[in-house]
Amino acid sequence: MDFPERIEAGMQRALRYATANGCPPILAKALRHAVFPGGARIRPRLCLAVAAACGDREPLAADSAAVAIELLHCASLVHDDMPCFDNAMTRRGAPSVHAQFGEEIALLVGDGLIIAAFETIARETQQTPLLTAPMITTIAKAVGSPYGLVAGQAWESEPEINIAAYHRAKTASLFSGAVSTGAIASGGNPREWLVLADALGAAYQVADDLYDAVGQSDAGKPAGQDSRNGKPNIVASIGLEAALARLKRLVAEAVDSVPDCPGAEGFRAMIRNEATRLMPKTLATSAA
Amino acid sequence: MDFPERIEAGMQRALRYATANGCPPILAKALRHAVFPGGARIRPRLCLAVAAACGDREPLAADSAAVAIELLHCASLVHDDMPCFDNAMTRRGAPSVHAQFGEEIALLVGDGLIIAAFETIARETQQTPLLTAPMITTIAKAVGSPYGLVAGQAWESEPEINIAAYHRAKTASLFSGAVSTGAIASGGNPREWLVLADALGAAYQVADDLYDAVGQSDAGKPAGQDSRNGKPNIVASIGLEAALARLKRLVAEAVDSVPDCPGAEGFRAMIRNEATRLMPKTLATSAA
């Protein structure tokens, strides 16, 4: 199976457990709505790509990490869309979870997906028990407090925002988690991959801000939302051209930082392809 | 150290990690507010008591399970208190997290505590790796979907509520998780303890409903909240006297179901003491 197939199979399996017989029917429906159809699944693909570059020694463990990371990403989108944050009524061209199922269910869907993420790793690594704790602590760090997604979102409630810490926590951390667990699952050294993860995470943040500014919402969220919500946006602060230049520089940095490993060349090619995908379509030709 | 000391030391340690240097300051304050000062810490005490009854073979693992369970309990209280659910302005005699810090932070505190719970187990079982996955899957089952706390809360959004599934998921499941992980941490058989967990969980649900009806809120939540929120309450459906009788019967059942083990007698005595604590003070003498 290629990466997308492994990811979707793993997501389906995780959701079968979470919505098994006896689940409150509305919750089950909402859990699936939050996860299918997916977006670009960029973080789990990155996780599997690093695992493959390191030799894919424990594919089941790598799959579980990829699925956990995507479940956590989906959970964060559900909670971020809620009225107390972005109050976004659509996501990936469909109603957001709270718009369709109400706030109560959206809150519970997020909680349930967070739990399902850790449960997935624990369940799928019973045959590779030395990987369970390192993968879970790595992912927890990427999404929790003080340095992960939760902290990133919480910076928005501070009177003085630490912009570097904010972006690192809100975007780069989950890329780091994806890269690190991919390496761990294959016996690689996650530290060798951290420069790459930081560069890709920062690139993705710039791309997300470009989408918001240029008004193409195929990444999932409606355009212009950042300024409506008073959120920091790099295009607003340095301008479109400088933001595009930064994106190109970050992608080049990511390509250069791929460590020596059996799959290094294929991995570099993948990043270059990904760079085009990352950009709003009207800008892609000028930056490719 | 006795159980309460082990629990508080573990909770402090978990919160030191979650609020370490670099944490957004409001988030750090709110995380602590959600956890300290604690309530009765009944679930983690139960976890450690079962571990002790089974010989306390891996006290660090048992401590991590106890802490994780209490962090998850605190997370569920923070989310349950939010406006879209109970809209409770106080908890344990202080402002609830959303009342003091706002909805955004309350949402993030709940998420952060859920993540910290799994992180704690993974971090503290690195020396006992064969326990990591079984403890995490057991606890995830107790709090997630389809059978744990998340599902229990979600039943309240269904047009037709399955009362048995609702109570099992909303209250009994976390007691089961506490008992099961206590046994697992000491090499015991969690299945031998499940009747006890079910009886105690059901007893606690009745006690909680009694508190709500009788109007003594030292368990944490304001009285009369169930009827205001249209929630099922056993006192409302079978009356005060029958509810008290059921509580007594459940406690007796719990005492009878303690399996043969080195610490069985001490454990039975603990349950009898706990029964008095469980009851609203004005009713305790008549039921002891």
TrEMBL record, chains A, B:
<dbReference type="Pfam" id="PF00348">
    <property type="entry name" value="polyprenyl_synt"/>
</dbReference>
<keyword id="KW-0808">Transferase</keyword>
<protein>
    <submittedName>
        <fullName>Geranylgeranyl diphosphate synthase type II</fullName>
        <ecNumber>2.5.1.1</ecNumber>
        <ecNumber>2.5.1.10</ecNumber>
        <ecNumber>2.5.1.29</ecNumber>
    </submittedName>
</protein>
<dbReference type="GO" id="GO:0046872">
    <property type="term" value="F:metal ion binding"/>
</dbReference>
<dbReference type="InterPro" id="IPR000092">
    <property type="entry name" value="Polyprenyl_synt"/>
</dbReference>
<dbReference type="GO" id="GO:0008299">
    <property type="term" value="P:isoprenoid biosynthetic process"/>
</dbReference>
<comment type="similarity">
    <text>Belongs to the FPP/GGPP synthase family.</text>
</comment>
<dbReference type="GO" id="GO:0004161">
    <property type="term" value="F:dimethylallyltranstransferase activity"/>
</dbReference>
<dbReference type="InterPro" id="IPR008949">
    <property type="entry name" value="Isoprenoid_synthase_dom_sf"/>
</dbReference>
<dbReference type="GO" id="GO:0004311">
    <property type="term" value="F:geranylgeranyl diphosphate synthase activity"/>
</dbReference>
<keyword id="KW-0460">Magnesium</keyword>
<dbReference type="InterPro" id="IPR033749">
    <property type="entry name" value="Polyprenyl_synt_CS"/>
</dbReference>
<keyword id="KW-0414">Isoprene biosynthesis</keyword>
<keyword id="KW-0479">Metal-binding</keyword>
<dbReference type="GO" id="GO:0004337">
    <property type="term" value="F:(2E,6E)-farnesyl diphosphate synthase activity"/>
</dbReference>
